[in-house]
Amino acid sequence: MSSAKKILPYDNTERQAALPEQPLSPFEVATFIEGMAAELRVMARSAKLDTLSYFLEMARIEASAQIEIIAERKLAT
Q1: What pTM was computed for the model?
Q2: b/e for 44-58, b at 16 or more Cβ within 10 A?
């Protein structure tokens, strides 16, 4: 149980220290998630973790869709 606390901060002080000084925009977060999901999918696929690979690809596709939605909103304004 104590090792889990080191991985996942539970008290507010530790959580605040883990956050970036300036919050990321939705576009930045979606872009980061898209890239990470793509990299993790390659790892899962190479390890023959087919179901995990599939779900990571779905996450990448959703992140990509959100990026497009955000970009279209910015162009419309």
Answers
A1: 0.72
A2: beeeeeeeebeebbe
